[in-house]
Write a structure and sequence with these properties.
Largest sheet: 8 strands, mixed
Strand content: 15-25%
Number of strands: 8
Structural class: alpha/beta
Number of domains: 1
Helix content: 25-40%
Order of helices and strands: HHEHEHEHEHEHHEEE
CATH class: Alpha Beta
Oligomer: single chain
CATH architecture: 3-Layer(aba) Sandwich
Shape: globular
Distance between the termini: 29 Å
């Protein structure tokens, strides 16, 4: 562990400025609301989360964390964006979501504090926004119990992803604020798989997330060329 936070101040400021819009279904965060049922069902289908202790790393305004709590999980969402966390806390109060809590703490600090404490760890749309994604992957692996599951989602780094996820989504369709993603921070599946192996996680399933901007329909398939998700597992403890 080091004393420096694995966070980009510019990234935190970017999301803090938009914090009040997290739960506006027609805001810049509309895509997250639209894909959330897909990723929630995918996670729950692999590792049913009802009654599980779940950690959502990089929870932002709590879109996924709140929905997992409504599935019956005992959820802790962590982030370093103060304003986004306040929005998440306020939404939980207003919506009456009782089994979700939020903390302003890094994944690495949480891993030092509570190793092997969670049945499921999720880290969605976050790795491409930190200086050292491998450090976050390692922290997630430390936080999950032996036999538990860690789920990641991020964006591939190639020409197609640049054209669709950055040029298309941010500059042509205005689905996301311009500057949301930086091409050099995007992560190839091979790179994320290497980070997972180094952290002791076993890759069990990979899924791609597809989008039709005309119909605003999203679906999962095997195409990981742009948006993709990993389901990984910490091997069970041996006797």
């Amino acid at each position: 562990m080091t004393n420096s936070l694995n966070a980009d101040p510019a990234e935190l400021a970017k999301f803090s400025e938009l914090a009040h819009r997290w739960w506006d279904l027609e805001s810049e965060f509309r895509p997250l609301h639209e894909i959330n049922p897909l990723r929630l069902d995918w996670i729950d289908g692999i590792s049913p989360i009802g009654d599980k202790r779940v950690l959502d790393v990089g929870c932002g305004g709590g879109i996924l964390a709140d929905s997992m709590a409504r599935k019956g999980a005992d959820v802790l969402g962590i982030d370093l964006a103060t304003k986004a966390l306040k929005v998440a806390q306020l939404h939980a109060l207003e919506a009456g979501t009782r089994n979700v809590k939020y903390r302003e703490v890094s994944a690495e600090a949480m891993a030092a504090e509570a190793p092997a404490s969670f049945d499921v760890v999720t880290c969605m749309e976050m790795l491409e926004h930190v200086p050292d994604p491998a450090s976050v992957v390692k922290a997630c692996a430390t936080l999950v119990k032996p036999g538990g599951w860690v789920f990641f989602s991020t964006i591939n780094r190639n020409l197609k992803a640049f054209m669709l996820a950055i040029v298309g989504a941010e500059y042509l369709l205005n689905m996301l604020p311009r500057g949301t993603h930086e091409y050099q921070k995007l992560i190839r599946p091979s790179e994320l798989a290497a980070h997972c192996r180094a952290a002791g996680l076993v890759l069990r399933e990979t899924r791609g997330l597809q989008h039709n901007p005309i119909t605003r329909r999203y679906w999962l398939n095997d195409d990981t060329s742009v948006n993709y998700m990993f389901a990984t597992q910490r091997p069970p403890a041996t006797l």
